[in-house]
Amino acid sequence: MSVEVEELAEVVLPEALEQARAKAAENNWPYAGGVTPTVAWDLVQKGQAVLVDVRSGEERKFVGHVPESLHVAWATGTALTRNPRFVRELEAKLAKEGGKDAVALLLCRSGKRSALAAEAAAKAGFTHVFNVLEGFEGEIDAHQHRGGADGWRFHKLPWVQD
Description:
Blueprint: H1 15-26, E1 34-35, H2 37-45, E2 50-53, H3 57-63, E3 70-71, E4 75-76, E5 81-82, H4 86-93, E6 103-107, H5 112-123, E7 128-132
Parallel strand pairs: 1-7, 2-3, 2-6, 6-7
Antiparallel strand pairs: 4-5
């Protein structure tokens, strides 16, 4: 009697994500790693990753969003109340991309909430979830403005506004 062992197909990550994973391990980050907005866009364009916007629905609508990005809010409403269904919703949105083995890049306003979301995803068993560093709008500057030095929009990457 022979026993067949089903081998799981190992995901081969692009070099940029392997480098991000190595840096994350070096820094003891609790998730797969982080990439810049330009690297994220390159990976999405090549079909090597899916972009998931984790900002609130209000942020996407009034500030803008990346066309064809998926949306799973990490927090909701103006008070940014943590979404208790985030992990389940992320898994459902990534189901056709490979579920918990999908290569996903999480994007928020500045890269902070998406790092928390990536950590939660990693704890839930997602293996290839990365943070988009700088976020959509970037860090706030000395004049209390965003977008002047970094972020998705600063790099002139595609976005639309409702």
